[in-house]
Amino acid sequence: MTYRYPHFHTRLVIEDMRFHAGPQPGEEMPDFDLSTVDGGRVTKSDFVGRGPLLLTMGSVTCPMTAAADPALKRLHAQFGDRVAFLSCPEFRRVR
Questions:
Q1: What one-character-per-residue DSSP string does 8-35 give?
Q2: Are 83 and 52 in contact (CB under 8 A)?
Q3: What is the pTM of this model?
């Protein structure tokens, strides 16, 4: 597997924390169209009006994404009956 960085350093996290170009808290979630592991599709409209959605994005080759898995599983165990969880390695904005 090829990683984006040959070695992971704290400096990379600090650089990532400086990225502020995405949606801000309180902004409406952009439309999305994602493929599912079974070959289907899932879109924002599948979740509208159904309560909170936790959408996480990451790469299966990313050590930080892999490290977040246990915490996401704990959150799902605690809140999965009230919050929809959606994790995806690919994100494509609908235009």
A1: --HHHHHHHHT---SPPTTSPPPPBEEE
A2: yes
A3: 0.66
Is the separation of the CB atoms in 8 and 62 below 8 Å?
Answer: no
Mean pLDDT by 10 residues, the chain (95 residues): 62 73 80 85 92 85 80 95 84 46
* DSSP secondary structure letter of residue 44: G
Strands 84-88 and 53-57: parallel
Sign of CA pseudo-dihedral 59, 63, 64, 68: positive
Reduced to 3 states (helix: H, G, I; strand: E, B; else coil), residue 78 is helix
94, HSE (Cβ side, Cα atoms, 13 Å): 12
Encoding tokens for residue 58? 């990451």
C-alpha pair distances (Å), 46 with each of 26, 30, 51, 65: 20, 13, 11, 25
